[in-house]
Every structure is written in structure tokens, then in C-alpha cells.
Amino acid sequence: MGFFDLFRKKDTYHEERHQQNELENWNDIVYTRKNIDMDDPAQRREYIENCLEQIAEASRDMDSLQFEYRVVTSHLRDMEEIDSLPPDQRAEVNQCAQRIIDSEEQQKNFNKRKSRMTDQEFEKMERLSGQIKKGAQSLKDAEEHQRKVKNDLRRLDGERQAYDFRKAETEVSIDNMQRLMIVVAIVLGVITVGLAIVSLAFKLNVVYGYMVAITVAALAFLFLNQKIHEARREKKVILNSIARIIQLQNTVKIRYVNNKNVIDYECLKYGVNNSRELMSLYERYLQEKTERERYAVYTKQLDTNQKELVHTLRKYRIRDPEIWIHQAIALVNKGEEVEIRHELVGQRQQLRKQMDYNRDVVAGNAKNEIEELVKQYPVYRQEILDLVDRVEQRDPGA
Length: 398
What we know:
- This protein is mainly alpha-helical.
- Helix content is 87%, strand content 0%.
- It is built from nine helices and no strands.
- The longest helix is centred in the middle third of the chain and has 84 residues, at 119-202.
- The two termini are 60 Å apart.
């Protein structure tokens, strides 16, 4: 496996070397007229315009690079100016920078905190803040009333079940007494038949027997009939009571439904399930509001401190004081200042390298190529100069 890895490493090396050579070749601008017929007006014009376009593009790039170079140089000069300030002035600058750092740290701590509410919840509570206390109390009262209404419904259900049980008992009692009356009538009939048989068979006088049987049967009928009437009256009272309970139940159910609708609306309005959640949400809102107000104070203080630093730096003739509000740490931390200075020096070197490339390689080679064309083809000298003038008029900076 190691043997094949050796070849693979060689292949990788050659590939990387090829890519490096290719990039180096890309940086080189080569002008060749090998396949161009300079006596052909179209080819000659296209070739010259291409050279002039490269000069114009290099000029535009130079403007941008020079502007950035001036900015970086100005920043480095500002750093030197700040470092050369007298101790009392530098202390004033450092104090302003430290206040900015402290304000930014306070903001960072606020952003790191565990938020109690989302922005959507906070905005909703902010909109309803004037109604929340009253709404929470109304919701609590409605929930308490709901519990009482439920208890009333349970009590009425219990009473109705008791009356239904009594009604069933009364109906059973009436049925039983009606059956007893039938039994008494049957017994009376049997006794009467028996007495008649005895009277005929034994020639006995059974008038007193008839009288006793009829009397007992009559008393039994009267007793049972009285009980039936009492039971029916009791049943009527029970039915009236049941009707009254049903009416009360309907009234209480209406109150229950209306009250439940009020609770559902209040819960939907505030996005909670009960009054406890609403009070908890309100308490979180108050805490969140306090913290956000504190954050607003921090933000305002940071803005004030930044303006104070800009004013102080401008007072001591620093060219770009606004830059320092975003890197105040470099004013009080020498290590940060050295790192920024090193970065700026590297940027300036890179910008100078780009400017040299555009000036010497891009624009310089193209200019040399045009001058060479004028020398080699004096017959086309005026045409070439006309093209140069036309490009200069179109791009004055070229």
C-alpha cells in the first residue's frame, strides 16, 4: 500500500506544481501579433482597441486601489497620531474607549441572556398591557364562577336522580296496591262462592259471613284506595319537583355556557389556558419590559459614548475618528493595536503590489505595445493616435 502511496504523492506534487505554474502564467500578460495581420484594418483596429481597453481598465482599477490605499494609509497615520498624544490627552481617549467597551459588554450580556418572551409575545403583551390586570381578574372571577356553576349542576343532577328514584318507588307502590286490590276482590269472590256452597249444602244461614267478608273487603278497598291516592299525590309532587329542577338545570346550563364562552374568549385573546398562565405571562412581560428598557439605556449610552469618542479624536485632529468606534479595544489594549497595525500594513503592501501590477504590467505593457506599433508601422501612426484620442475622450482617466 505504501508503494502506491509513493506514486500518488508524486502525482499530487506534479499536479500542485502545474497549478502553480498555471497561476504564474495567468499573471503574465503577453502581447503577440503572430497570428494577426496588421495590414488588415479590422484586425489592426481590434488589436489596438484591446490594448487601449486594458489601459483604461487598469486606470479604473488604479483609481479604486489608490482610494483604498489612501484610506489605509490615513488609518495608519491616525494610529501614529494617537500614539504620539500627550499622556493626559491619551488618557482622555482611553477613558472614552473604555466606556464604549463597557457599554458593548453590557449589550453582549443582554443578548446572551435567556429570553423570557419572544418578540411576537412581547409586542402582543405591549399592545394589551393596559387591559391585562383587569383581564386577569375578570378571567379569575369567571373561573371561580365556573367552579360554582359546576357544583350547582352536580347538586341539581343529584337532586334529580333522588327524585327519579322516589318517582320509581312511588310507581312501584301504586302498582303493588292496585294488584292487592285485585287480590282482595278475588279473595272476596272465593269467600262468597264458598259461603254459598256451604249454605246450599248444609242449609246454614251464612248472612253474617257475607257481612263480615264484605265489610273486611270494603275496609281493605278503602285503605288501599287511600294509599293509592296518597301515592299519586306524592308522584305529582315529585313530577313538579323534577320539572322545577329541569328548569333550574337549564338556567344554570345557560350560565355555564355563557361563562365558558367568556373564559374561552379571554384565553384566546391573551393566548393562555387559564388565569394562572395569564398572571405568569404578565409577570414575565414586566420583567422582559424592564430588561428591554435597560437594554435601550445601554444602547443610548453606547451611542453617547461613541459620539464622545469621535468628538475627542476629532478634537485632537484625527482624520477618521469614526473608524475607532468599531475597534475601541485597540485604544486600550496594546496587543489589539499591534494586530490591527500589522493587518493594515499587510493591506497596504498588498494594495501597493496590485497598483504596481496594474501600472507596470497591465497598463505599462499595453502602452509599450502601442508605442511599438507606432514605430513598426509608421504608416498607421495617425490612425493609432486617433484611436488613442478617442479612448481618452471616452475615458478621461485612462
